[in-house]
Amino acid sequence: MRRTVFRGVLRQLPRMPGDCDQKLHNAMRGKHFPLKGKATRDRTYYLNKTIKAPIQFVFDWCTDFREDDHKLTDSKFRRTMYSRGGEKVVYVDEETVDGEVRRSKSEVILFPTDRWVLHSVGDELDEEGEYQLEEVDGKTTALKMVFEVSHKLTPIPSRAKWEKDGHEFWDKLIVALEKEYRAKKKNKNLKRCSQ
Asked: SS3 helix, strand, coil % of the chain, rounded to 5?
């Protein structure tokens, strides 16, 4: 049964912080939490990408969250992993902007082999995202993303700016993903030839 992207699932997930471990709670104490103010503007954004790799490889690669993920996109954030087990991943991202440290804590629920859902609470924004993979032809995968974002800081980026930044971020990830897939495929072919 194929799952489809729909917004209702986001409200059915367990809410943080009640279901996170004590280590995460301790790390989040400080001047930035509880969060500053209330969300100022809610928006829904949509991003779609086509990836030249099979669906299983794409799912495995996209849900293999690591502390050095920022290197793939030349991002300034730093990630700390707090838990990874079964179908749940919890991490904290931290970035310094104009001398101010901004944090976000994220929980990702995995629905192998074609979907994952993000719930993120941060200083800059709160975000719920759903990522749905669809096989195109066995060699190509479509990634459909829906984000419900509550912006907390002003100025709030325009829809065009947010989507442009989102596309640029994902384009960098996809370059790295496809490069890794080609290398793995080439390696596999070399092993076959030498046998």
From this structure: 30, 35, 30
